[in-house]
Design brief:
Blueprint lengths: L1 E4 L1 H8 L3 H12 L3 E5 H9 L3 H13 L1 E3 L3 H14 L4 H15 L3 E4 L3 H4 L5 E3 L2
Parallel strand pairs: 1-2, 1-4, 2-3, 4-5
Amino acid sequence: MRYLLDTTVLIDHAKGRPDTVALVRELFSEPNDLFVCDAVVTEATSGVDEPEVAAIIALIEAVEYVSTHPDAALWAGASRRRLRRTSPRQLGDAIIAGVAWFNDAVVVTRNPADFEVQGVRVLAYE
């Protein structure tokens, strides 16, 4: 299975949330393709204090990094138009959803509604 780790996973893992640490460990223990994209890396490294950045970078380096393909960006724009979402906060979610769609991946997130409304598959955790 292909899993796109959302920003929440990187931040929660860096903060040592036991449920997230266990989930990441489980995902690594199975034959999965785990990856992050540019929007996730940007959000995660800008949304924490300096001590968490090193832990986030370590997780980023342990998974595959994919850039946003132009088709994924076009899909994200169409999703925002369809849903009439224009806030800056929702821009990142639309790009992440577009990358998941383009790569036929499941988004792993603590905020499933942000992605389910866009029609991508989600693995939710609390």
